Amino acid sequence: MYDEFSEVVKLHKDVPKLFRSLIQFHKYCVYIFAGSQESMMKNLFVSSKGVFFKFARSLYLDFLEEKDCKNYIKERLKANQKEVERIVEITKCHPYYLKKLLHIKLTREKASLEEALRILLEEERHYLELLMWHLKEKKYRAEVVRILSCGENPYELLKGVIRTQQINQILRDLEFEGVVRRRARGKYELTDPLLALYLCRKYQP
Q1: How many angstroms separate the Cα of 34 from the Cα of each of 6, 7, 37, 60, 164?
Q2: 139-162 as b/e, with b when 16 or more CB fall inside 10 Å?
Q3: Whether the Cβ atoms of residue 86 and residue 114 lie closer than 8 Å to each other
Q4: Distance between CA 102 and CA 87 in Å, rounded?
Q5: Contact residues for 7 (Cβ-Cβ < 8 A; gap 6+)
Q6: Smallest Cα–Cα separation from 97: which of 87, 84, 106?
Q7: pLDDT attached to residue 204
Q8: Going residue by residue through the chain (205 aa), what tens digit of pLDDT does each one get?
Q9: What pLDDT, on the 0 to 100 scale, is given for residue 31?
């Protein structure tokens, strides 16, 4: 089993190609590829341009339960309720970011939660900027993502700029790629809580 498999992309863009070339002829064995950065996993396994397209069957697992996360945070950090709530607010119970943020706090005892968050954002900055660069390949997609990152409505803020049908198509494309998920009719949110936080801090005055 290869956990957080999307991390291989951060090593070098050609690593996934090399990996597949080595294992595609293996017999009598089963591989499990797991990853909590959904957009990168979909780029690898679901996108027709992905290195592992049609190589494996995809299963989707949602975020962790909030109650379980709070209990785990209290146990690991011996944190007070305010700090627990803030960690849940930051990570949205996303397993990858929850694990990384807690690891930073545990290995840097004197670091405040905000300092740990700053370190996490810096460590993930390359991935986040790479994702935004990919989104900018098609017009208005990055703008829609920036609007959603701060909890705003793209239908309202882009009214008169682009047609409603275009926004619908952009959101459908982003949902397929795993960048956003629909919470209710006409309401979407980013699947990556750190991307939302990164963009909101970067572009909000």
Answers
A1: 8, 10, 9, 10, 36
A2: ebbbbbbbbbbeeeebeeebeeeb
A3: no
A4: 9
A5: 35
A6: 87
A7: 64
A8: 878 787 777 777 788 888 888 888 888 888 888 876 677 788 888 888 888 888 888 887 778 899 999 999 998 888 889 999 999 999 999 988 999 999 999 998 788 999 999 999 999 999 899 889 988 888 899 999 999 998 899 999 998 899 999 999 999 888 877 788 888 787 898 989 999 999 988 876 5
A9: 86
Location of structure tokens 């098609």: 138
Rounded Cα distance, 45 and 51, in Å: 7
Contact 128, 194 (CB under 8 A): yes
CA distance readout (Å), 131 to 6, 96, 137, 190 = 13, 17, 10, 12
The DSSP annotation for the chain comes to -BTTGGGHHHH-TTHHHHHHHHHTT--S----B--S-HHHHHHHHTSTTSTTTTTS------PPPHHHHHHHHHHHH---HHHHHHHHHHHTT-HHHHHHHHHHHHH-TT--HHHHHHHHHHHHHHHHHHHHHHHTTSTTHHHHHHHHHTT--HHHHTTTTS-HHHHHHHHHHHHHTTSEEEEETTEEEES-HHHHHHHHHHH--
Please give the structure tokens belonging to residue 100.
């990384």
